Amino acid sequence: MPRESKSARLERMHAEYALLCAEIPAPKCALDFSNPLQLLIATVLSAQTTDKRVNTVTPALFAAYPTAAALAAARPEDVEDIIHPLGFYRSKTKNLLGLATALDADFHGEVPRTMDELTTLPGVGRKTANVVLGNAFGIPGFPVDTHVIRVTGRLRWRSDWNGSHPDPVKIEREICACFPPAEWTDLSHRLILHGRAVCHARKPDCGSCPLAGTCPSAG
Fold first, then answer.
1. Any idea which residues carry the catalytic annotation?
2. Contact criterion met (CB below 8 Å) for 115 and 132
3. What is the DSSP annotation of 42-59?
4. Model confidence pTM above 0.85
5. How many CB atoms lie under 10 A from the CB of residue 202?
6. What is the tens place of the pLDDT at every residue in 20-78?
7. Rounded to whole angstroms, how far apart are CA atoms 31 and 47?
8. Cα–Cα distance between 209 and 19 in angstroms, integer?
9. First CA to last CA across the chain, in angstroms?
10. Alpha helices in the chain (DSSP H)
């Protein structure tokens, strides 16, 4: 296969993304939430589990602890009891109580709106911060999860597509440089949804993939 130029790759990326837009016209966050605090909590809980499973425990958690102050004052064992089905419940409880305490003490109980401030909170990295920025505040963010890493690698949208230790921050910067900020949040959603539905980790369903005609990994 001849080496693809940067300009040719960029043109292909936008053509493939147009197909994803047609396939997934109205993407949205799979986590259930009604305010920024709920989304932040749900995203922290989603580590090492599925969004669907997180949605089964958050109604009880949000009802019991509707504010950062309420969560900060919670007994750890009570929170653990609610989120136990998700796994890693002890470390997740520690992070939730820590971030709630920090929100209450440093941000008047409100979720901050910047990457730098969000990532000072316990259990909050760039991926979680980007989820909150894009979905709670409409501020451009590009969360890089395992689906985004896998799909952008198979599509060879990034230079290190065959690397054994992909760097999420490098992927975020490289992909974001190819699309306008207004697209970043939905771009991430579409790549994630495509990864879940079609471009599976073990056996991608290339036969039903709308991108198979130009994907370098198809077949």
1. 127, 145
2. no
3. HHHHTTTS-HHHHHHHHH
4. yes
5. 4
6. 999 999 999 999 999 999 999 999 999 999 999 999 999 999 999 999 999 999 999 99
7. 12
8. 10
9. 15
10. 6-23, 36-45, 51-64, 68-72, 76-83, 89-106, 115-118, 126-136, 146-154, 168-176, 184-197
